[in-house]
Amino acid sequence: VDPMSLPRLGCGSMGGMLALPQGKGPHHVGCTDVMVGHTRQGLFLRLFYPCLLQAGATEPLWIPRSEYCAGLANFILRRRWFSALLSITIGSCRVPVSWNGPFKPRSGGYPLIIFSHGLGAFRTLYSSVCTELASWGFVVAALEHRDHSAATTYFCTAEPGREEWIPFQGVPQGQKEFYFRNKQVHQRAEECVRALRLFKDVASGKSVLNILHQDWDLSVLKGNIDLTKVAVMGQSFGGVTAVLALVKEPSFRCAVALDAWMFPLENLLYPEVPKPVLFINTEKFQTPESVAKMKRLSSRNSQTKIITVLGTVHESQTDFAFLPGKLVSRIFGARGTLHPNKGLAITSQAALAFLQRHLNLDEEFDQWDDLLEGVGDSVVPEAPFCRSNL
């Protein structure tokens, strides 16, 4: 990539050149970062939640710090110089939610979703889908994994002001990819389980310190999360992480797997997946081997569903879909033909219908039940390798 050949980008009104949509649901959405513990065994996540409208609320940065631009540049292009260019083009983009906005209480509590990111991503790159789900009345905890699969991440040591960064790591030379990735997916699923335990601790009244924000107290969540209604969700490496989390933690009642990369899961575990999974695939990522693994799960559980959104590529399920076309195609080399707002609507409506069914929610999300059968505009059942319209 020649840096001079990249398009010059103007800044739109909402947070630079990234046009992330606001949630379509009835709730305003707030957002905060939560880090607990001073070692890599702690947890780091971005929390999206229904909030009270507040005048003068600030919107958080989409890329939280310049280190993440360097991590992305390294992951996508293996070129460090690209980091400065990313900082200039996307460094000032913001997410249309209220940063540290006041939590909106709800008697009985909101259902909870633990969200797992894909390979080379981090906690903020799925802000569009997390915001959308929060606007419909969910608390969504988007993890940042510490298994070296994030573009980069960090933890704050016990020594004040000192951070330790955990860079992205590829498969070491001479090591079989399956064994490397299988170890990672187990660590990721354990982090999902630990995140759920964190919310259980808060709900039980334990004092849990968020070391990033002394002004956003986790105790506001007490009595406001319904821990009988918990799901796990993720994209790509995060999709298979969500499936494995169902095996490890009985409290997760179902999983939503966006374009799951099924490769890292060992065959022994397929009979062990006890709960329903909704697989939402894009048109241009899955392999027959991966889909065969999904079908093994659906043959064991009639509530497991597989649908494909036509006109989409793997990145269509991330926030990158909302960057201007020229930039995305320069970075990734491909772009879906389906409008990103339409893709987000299909993904979130199918997820909401599925979550209503399996978390026993008293909402009207069943209006989108047809999507779960692959019925609707731009959606088909299962995995149509023969039906590409890109």
What does this entry look like structurally?
- By secondary structure, this protein is of the alpha/beta class.
- The chain has a single domain (29-60, 95-381), classed as Alpha/Beta hydrolase fold, catalytic domain (Rossmann fold, 3-Layer(aba) Sandwich).
- It contains nine helices and twelve strands.
- It has helices at 66-77, 82-90, 127-135, 177-203, 237-248, 288-300, 325-332, 340-359, 369-372; strands at residues 28-36, 43-51, 98-99, 110-116, 139-143, 152-156, 163-167, 225-235, 254-258, 277-282, 305-309, 379-381.
- The strands form two sheets. Strands 3-1-2-5-4-8-9-10-11-12 form a ten-stranded mixed sheet, with helices on both faces. The chain has a two-stranded antiparallel sheet with strand order 6-7.
- α5 (237-248) links the parallel β8 (225-235) and β9 (254-258).
- α1 packs across α2 (82-90), α3 packs across α8 (340-359) and α4 crosses α5 (237-248).
- The radius of gyration is 20 Å and the shape is globular.
- Residues 1-16 and 386-390 have low confidence and may be disordered.
- Its EC number is 3.1.1.47.
- GO terms for molecular function: 1-alkyl-2-acetylglycerophosphocholine esterase activity.
- The active site is at residues 236, 259, 314.
- This is 1-alkyl-2-acetylglycerophosphocholine esterase.
- Pfam families: PAF-AH_p_II.
